[in-house]
Amino acid sequence: MKRHTVRTHRSDEGLERSDELAWKIAQVAVDPVEVEPAVADMIVNRVIDNAAVAAASLSRGPVVAARGQALARPQADARPGHGGARVFGVEGAHQPEWAAWANGVAVRELDYHDTFLAAEYSHPGDNIPPILAVAQHAGADGAALVRGIATGYEIQIDLVRAISLHKHKIDHVAHLGPSAAAGIGTLLGLAPEVIYQAIGQALHTTTATRQSRKGQISTWKAHAPAFAGKMAVEAIDRAMRGQTSPAPIWEGEDGVIAWLLDGPQASYEVPLPEWGEPKRGILDSYTKEHSAEYQAQAWIDLARKLGTEHPELRNPDAVAAIVLHTSHHTHYVIGSGSGDPQKYDPTASRETLDHSIPYIFTVALQDGAWDHVGSYAPERAGRPDTVSLWHKVTTAEDAEWTRRYHSDDPAEKAFGGRVEIELSDGSRIVDEIAVADAHPLGARPFARADYVAKFRTLAEDVLVASEIERFLDLAERLPELTPAEVSQLNIVAAGLPLAPEGLF
């Protein structure tokens, strides 16, 4: 990996295009380096993972609405290479940008797919819906799709390693627009000039504030990455038609760094693969065993363990206080340090409870389990003994856990913390966990069998058995699929609810 210094340049400095980050990303996208077998295998895992969580969300409101918008836009062009894309849950071909939109919402709705955390936060699996939609529309084969996804993951993860968006209250999907555009460029074998222009447009149109993840969190949380993917598809289309973009998009005097990030005097060191270096970024990401914010994964595992070992902890009368000593992010974003009273509100939305570690720890402690539906049900959140115990749980930033959270050493990087429980009788219980059980360094790292089991579990009440097997057969052969088979890389369900009437 080579680190590239990225900073603001005055207009009169004459920054060469070859020195712009967008151009360097385009160079990574056009590098024909082979995808390593381990990377291809992990891409298969994540395609299965995305389909699993999408299947479980097909009847949820945001997904129904987004699907309705996509279904209003069937693909009518019969020219070769214009075959349309598939929308999760239904038959037929639809316009690729709208398929990317609908499928992106389905993948993100339950907050249940893969993650990478560094200077910024990300769900790099969000790259798959737009890249897959374009692959289906353009008639690409499985090998091209794998190359495109490898690029999408690589670019998003490299940006996340170097550039913090949340520090400036910018939503993390601002790294997704450029990565998806780059991945689509690789998929289609586009020229670097076209990819460069698309990256600039995709970034320019996908910067938004983090209010979408603050306070009473709305249904837009699932739509935000889908919007970024849709903008990437549209940016590619415009760039292919010869349209240009604001430039230099990151480094310009009125660009992203100068006015949205650390300011005109700031600089970043962005790592990118050198020419001929394999794109391995996906191997540093990790998926979720539980449907909750990633920083909650390890805490769910620890809470389940503690509740089993000490069943008395499930009784709020036995507990005086529970303090989770953890990283800055966990404390201030999903913990009591956020100052959001909604994180303690039993009537809060599912999206809000998903971002409340006091709630999540309490339910996992009491139930010894975590369910993507039942654990968020209003009757579960409102149970009096749960509310009582929940309000005794707070978080505190611990400098060592913050340091480990930001560590570049995979063996040291941690997303958990230390829990200190004061019991009503004066005794104490102290325990800690660094990473989730499903993490690559956890107690039970996820492997292919776990991804397949996750898909089967989440799809069994939604898809018929033959559809489950058909999809898995295609997905596990992804690198060898023909264009016709790529076009069928979708899941179809019966009896899905119709979308509410809208404008279209």
TrEMBL record:
Belongs to the PrpD family. Residues 290-478 form the MmgE/PrpD C-terminal domain. It holds the Pfam family MmgE_PrpD_N. It comes from the Bacteria. This is MmgE/PrpD family protein. Residues 20-268 form the MmgE/PrpD N-terminal domain. Coiled coil: none annotated. InterPro entries: MmgE/PrpD_sf, MmgE/PrpD_sf_1, MmgE/PrpD_sf_2, MmgE_PrpD, MmgE_PrpD_C, MmgE_PrpD_N.
